[in-house]
Amino acid sequence: MRHYPAFMDIIGRKALVIGQGESADRKAQALRRAGAEVNISPTFKPSLLDGCAIAIGAEAPDEDLQALSRTAIERGIPVNIVDRPELCSFITPAIVDRSPLTIAISSGGAAPVLARLLRAKIEALVSPNYARLATLAEQFKDKVRAAFPDMAIRRRALETLLTGPAADLALSGQENEAGKLFEAAINQPDTISRKGIVYLVGAGPGAPDLLTLRAQRLLGEADVIVHDRLVTDEILDMGRRDAGRIFVGKARANHCMRQEDINALLVRLGQEGKRVVRLKGGDPLIFGRGGEEAEALAEAGIPFEIVPGITAALGCAAGSNIPLTHREAARAVTFITGHTRDGTLEMDFHGAVQLGGTLAVYMGIVTLPRLRDGLLAAGLPADTPSALIERGGTEAQRTLFGTLDHLVATAPDWSEGGPALVLVGQAVGRAVPDHRD
Ligand code: SAH
User: Atom of ligand 1 at shortest distance to CA of 280?
Assistant: First the structure.
């Protein structure tokens, strides 16, 4: 580590800025925001440093900047000269301001642009509402200390408050409601550390950067991650290293764990006081049985929350430039499954064809021939544009365009066995070329 990181308290202290121009003004402004009494002067003379806690130089004649640096260092006053690392006794980091929370990033002068790029990432990751959460924590600081005198227990309680439902409320802007949960925890200190929560989280189609920011945050906070086959390793790696990971399987016709057992597992983990993330491919409420898990949790009195994800149809369509709706070609999208428990296909083909628009058929690859037969018999024109999309929304996505007849004939050899979705409808013919393979 090239520099020692620290945050300075300069409320009511004198600060000196030498220079004239935008950069000097910005520095003066930042010092004022931190509560300093700022004296700004275009040129330097040593007496200006009297009583100063900090000094910054920018856009002043070189001899002034040199003299400022030399004198300040001699007198033990921290000094920074903008863009002149050799004249500085401290450097200023790139910051993400979520006051009272401040995140500072420095590359020690090695790669300031990299530090700024990183800052942009953190800006996106740490919602502005963290400021509200930090303010809330500050408001309750003394009460929390009184309610949880033991430090270890206090830390655990705060972790729960700052990551649990109270935090979710504060982060979505509902400070008053969040404050009530803080109050409740303080009034009943012994309930707080025992209550678990289960998040039913959509992991999207597979690419880690198609997770929502909320899903990513919850993953990083989970004690246990319960996942199935569709969730990729890259996404699982985003969890804490010490978090438990439980695979509950479910490949077609190869159910690792029965749904009832998964429900019971989630309930048990919740009762143990764990923060559980139940990760499901795509969206938890679309052919994901998230509804059943939510029911089981509600019945057992375990708090839960559902976090949406990008469902396969959306990932596949975007990845193959297919407009799911189109002003001229499709006014509806139907998410439909081609699979039933015993492997047969049960579908209201007439209804589907009559509604028109785009059909997104999940779990349809095994039943593809019967899907084709049923749709054509119900009046779907045989030349209707269709696409079979494997591993949609990931880097390994592959797309096969053609009529349903063509897909049926080609799919067995073409498929590499990844999850695949069938899109059918005139809008598929409006795919914007570039990815056709
Ligand atoms: N809840 C999931 C769907 C689960 S059902 C979602 O919202 O996407 C499983 C089916 O989803 C698979 O058989 C396949 O048809 C489809 N599927 C899931 N991920 C996919 C992907 N990356 N590419 C194509 N199809 C996918």
Answer: 1
CATH superfamily placement of domain 197-310 = Tetrapyrrole methylase, N-terminal domain (3.40.1010.10)
What pLDDT is recorded for position 436? 46
Task: Convert the pLDDT of each residue in 20-47 to its tens digit.
Answer: 999 999 999 999 999 999 999 999 999 9
Write the single-letter amino acid at 395. Answer: E
Does the structure show a pLDDT above 60 at 356? yes
CB 375 within 8 A of CB 353: yes
List the residue whose alpha carbon is closest to atom 13 of ligand 1: 363
- With a threshold of 0.70, does the pTM exceed it? no
pLDDT in tens, 84-138: 999 999 998 989 999 899 999 999 888 888 998 999 999 988 989 999 999 999 9
**DSSP per-residue string spanning 245-314:** EEE---BTTB-SS-HHHHHHHHHHHHHTT-EEEEEESB-TTSSS-HHHHHHHHHHHT--EEEE----HHH
Under CATH, which architecture does the 94-126 domain have? 2-Layer Sandwich (3.30)
**205 C-alpha vs ligand 1 centroid, how far in Å?**
7
Percent of the chain, pLDDT > 70? 96
H or E stretch covering 224: strand 224-227
Residue with tokens 């018999």, as numbered in its chain = 377
Fold of the 313-430 domain: 3.30.950
Any residues with Cβ below 6 Å from ligand 1, and which? 205-206, 230, 280-283, 286-288, 311-312, 315-316, 362-363, 389, 391-394, 419-421
Which two three-digit tokens encode residue 12?
């009511």
224, pLDDT greater than 90: yes
Contact 395, 372 (CB under 8 A): no
